[in-house]
Amino acid sequence: MEGVISTTSKTSADSLSTATKLVASPLPQAIGSASFTAPGASVYCVVHGPQSAGSDDREFTDQGKFSVAVYLAPFARQGEAEAATRRQGDDSREEEEELAARVKEALLPSLRLECLKKSVLAVHLEIVRDSGTAFSACVTCASLALADSGLELNDLVASRTVEVGPSGDLVADPGGGGGEGGRARVTVCLMPNVEEVTAFEQTG
Predict the structure, then answer these.
(1) Which residues in the chain come in under a pLDDT of 70?
(2) What is the structure's pLDDT at 10?
(3) CA 177 to CA 41: how far, in whole Å?
(4) Residue 115: strand, helix, or coil
(5) What ranges make up the beta strands (E) of the chain?
(6) Cβ of 179: how many Cβ atoms within 10 Å?
(7) Angle in degrees, CA 119, 192, 11, rounded to 5
C-alpha cells in the first residue's frame, strides 16, 4: 500500500486549521512503514514482523506479543535550551520508554493479537521533530504503518491534539511544551469505524 494523504482541517468558524501529511510505504523495503508530518511533529515508523517468537521464548500465550520502541532524535527539539545535552542522560531514555508505553496502550485495541499466536510484532518509531504533539503523531503514524504491513486490524487509530489558544481559538497540533500558561490541551485517540476511544489525555 503506497500513497500520500494531505489534509487541511478547519472548523466552521475557521478557528481550527492545520496541514497534515501522511505517507504510506516511504520505506518500501520495510514490511510496513509510514511517515507523519504536521506543525507539531514529524515522525517515521517501521513495522517488524510478525515473526516467530523463537525457541528461547518458552512462555506460551494464546495471543501474539506486541512491542513499541520510540527513539527521539537529538535534533528533534532544537528550540529547547537543553537540546544539546538531552540525549546524554537517563532522562531521555525514560521519556522514550514512557512515550512508547502510551503509544502501545493506544494501539492495542486495534490489533488482533489472537491471530498472531507464537509471534512477535514490533513497531519502531523515530521522532525527528517534536514541538509538543509527538504522542498523537506517533499513534497515527504507527497505525498507518501497521495497516501498510497488511495486518488484519480491528480499525485504524487516528489521533489529534488540540489546544485552546491565547485568544480562546482552537489550535490543532500546537507547538510548545503543552498546556503552557495554563491553556487546556486535549489529545484523543479514536478508532472511527467502531467508534471507540483508545486513549484520552488532558492538561491545563
Answers:
(1) 1-18, 54-61, 79-90, 175-182
(2) 42
(3) 12
(4) helix
(5) 3-10, 17-24, 32-38, 41-52, 65-72, 119-130, 158-164, 170-172, 185-191, 196-203
(6) 17
(7) 140
Residue with cell 495486518: 151
Whether the CB-CB separation of 32 and 152 falls below 8 Å is answered with no
Q: Is the peptide bond before 28 cis (omega within 30 degrees of 0)?
A: no
Q: How far apart are CA 182 and CA 203, in angstroms?
A: 8
Q: What is the residue type of 99?
A: L
- Residue 173 CA to its chain's centroid (Å): 13
Residue the block writes with cell 489550535: 171
Q: Which amino acid is at 12?
A: S
Tens digits of per-residue pLDDT, 74-113?
989 876 544 544 555 567 899 999 999 999 999 999 999 9
What is residue 17's predicted lDDT score, i.e. its pLDDT?
46
CA distance 41 to 163: 15
Say how far apart CA 34 and CA 23 lie, in whole Å. Answer: 5
Bridge-based pairing of strands 17-24 and 32-38 is: antiparallel
Nearest to 125 by CA among 46, 29, 191: 46
Q: How many helices, marked H, and strands, marked E, lie in the chain?
A: 2, 10
